[in-house]
Amino acid sequence: MKKWLIAAISLAIAIVLFMYSNAEAKAAGMTLGYTTGDTASYNSLAKYHTYMNSIATDTFAFEKNGHIIGDAPTKQLTYAKKTKIKTWAVISNYNDAISDFDGDLASRVMSNKTAKKRFTDQLIALAKKNSYYGINIDFEAVNPEDRSKYSRFIQDVSQALKKKQIKTMVSVPAKSADDQKDDWSWPYDYAKIGKYADYVQVMTYDEHGIWGDPGSVASTSWIKSSLQFSVKKIKANKVIMGIPAYGYDWDVKDGSGSAAREWNELKSLIKKQKAKPAFHKKSGSMTFSYVDKKKHKHVVWYENEKTVQTKSHLAKQYKIAGVSVYALGNESESFWKAIQKGTK
């Protein structure tokens, strides 16, 4: 009788542990979509919401006095709440006046105690008002001399948010080493940022772009190197990798026709130009070329369903927290299915 009882108890415990571990595994796999306030972005959320469990609304910036500007996209937030999708508010240092990310603007708010307090207080207020699960700090082009200052800023803001039960995610450029000569990535001390942030979203895209020479937007080897460095500096269960829902089209003659190409428009471009896409084995990406009406040669680099699936699987390989997609409105269902297959 005792043996039977012990066996029954053991079986019950095993079942509970199995169910718990499965629930934890499901909860741990974040699939986040970046969204704006536009119609295309909302339509993607409505169509493909079953493929994601989090969204980040990229609609907020701030002024030099720390005052936050921007509006919460009500339709997106309402839909997310209805479908039980967690929401993050993206706050960036993008400056409309210069049409770019502003390192000096970020530096001013990090350096001035009054501005920093106003910034933090208003973050808490907007999170509470709009029922955001967390805040995604996206400061890009941070000045190289502000490396330590930025780390302390993340520490202070994260701790203030934590007291109010608000999570913190920090977006950082992808890198495979700390190189002081690299002004773009040097300011981001992964170890210190990762110590205080709940998640670190590594922007594993824009390896190449129309500001430079043609090449893969996110080659497999580059992503691997970035993730290897990331998990050495940050707990793997805090790391989120980025997946681009776009490619780049280089006008190699003079750059006048260069442009970003959304996932949705690439197939029609290939058909229109009667192009012949080829798989580039070294990068694990797709590429093709064509000549436009001005007789300018173009080179296009992008991802297709197969390459997205392969690269998404790196999240499983490195046992990180999940993946993020930039951005909703660019993609089709085939893109999401590729991610779903890759992250299984």
Automatic annotation (TrEMBL):
UniProt cross-references to Gene3D superfamilies, sorted A to Z: 3.10.50.10, Glycosidases
Signal peptide coordinates: 1-25
Keyword annotations of the record: Glycosidase, Hydrolase, Signal
One MF term in the entry's GO annotations: chitin binding
Cytoplasm is among the record's keywords: no
Domain GH18: 29-344
An individual GO BP term: carbohydrate metabolic process
Coiled-coil segments: none
Alphabetized SUPFAM superfamilies for the sequence: (Trans)glycosidases
Protein name, as recorded: Glycosylase
Species: Bacillus tequilensis
